[in-house]
Design goal:
226 residues; alpha+beta; eight-stranded antiparallel sheet; 5 helices; DNA-binding
DNA sequence: GAACCGATTTCCT
DNA sequence: GGAAATCGGTTCT
């Protein structure tokens, strides 16, 4: 089945498994960029103490209560945008955080976007005060360009203004497309979510991080290869 | 390759 | 007011 709307309206963990291997297509002035989803995390309901919905509906998280297939992009640690895909029927707050992608097409635009980000960072006063030093940075392999939730948004130029747009709209500039039928379903690893120590048990140990087994584009910390 | 650190601003019982 | 669904650089093993 490739009806993504139906898949996203179902249980979030099932939807997460279906999204592994799906494509994010970014279609804008910089051309067409395509990336394959290799890692997601599920945030399910108001009971989930790791979810932004844990305090109930707020101005920021309202879109999580909307229909499946909408984008929810939020800012974390004051600097990184993170892309979520809303799941489950309207009224039930749930979403899948896209933690890592494998670049498939438009890699030059992706590298440009990362270089732009690095330049902007260097403009900050604190960095200007620091000695630039002649340190040469290692070249980032293609497979690692989108290996983290913040990096996914950097290489695809996504930000909070995208929140509320429908990722299944064929005319949208950011689109979600199903895994091609010819491509075999990937082996999935389920492991605990990252960076949610504040949530307490059982939430910190729920295996709601889903990733393609042993895929080089998966973010750190690397899940067990099972 | 792991472990530590600083950046930066939005969000909310 | 305090913490946050992270990243990149540095420093160590």
């Amino acid at each position: 089945m490739t009806d993504l709307r139906a898949i996203l309206s179902g249980p979030t963990l099932d939807a997460g498994r279906e999204l592994l291997g799906a494509r994010i297509v970014r279609d804008d002035a910089d051309g067409v960029r395509v990336a394959r989803i290799v890692e997601v995390e599920a945030y399910i309901g108001e009971d989930d103490q790791a979810s932004h919905a844990r305090f109930g509906r707020t101005p920021r998280n309202t879109v999580m209560y909307g229909p499946p297939g909408l984008a929810y992009v939020y800012l974390v640690y004051g600097m990184h945008d993170c892309l979520n895909i809303v799941t489950e029927p309207a009224g039930r707050p749930a979403a899948l955080l896209v933690r890592a992608v494998e670049p498939l097409d438009g890699l030059d635009a992706m590298r440009d976007a990362r270089a732009r980000r690095a330049r902007d960072r260097r403009r900050s006063p604190a960095d200007a005060a620091a000695q630039p030093g002649p340190t040469r940075r290692a070249v980032i392999p293609d497979s690692r360009l989108g290996s983290g939730p913040g990096l996914v948004c950097v290489i695809l130029d996504l930000d909070r203004s995208l929140t509320g747009s429908d990722l299944l709209d064929p005319a949208g500039s950011v689109r979600l497309e199903p895994r091609p039928p010819a491509e075999p379903a990937p082996a999935v690893i389920a492991s605990p979510r990252v960076g949610i120590g504040y949530a307490g048990e059982p939430w910190t140990t729920q295996p709601w991080r889903l990733s393609i087994r042993d895929h080089p584009s998966v973010s750190r910390p690397r899940p067990p290869s099972g």
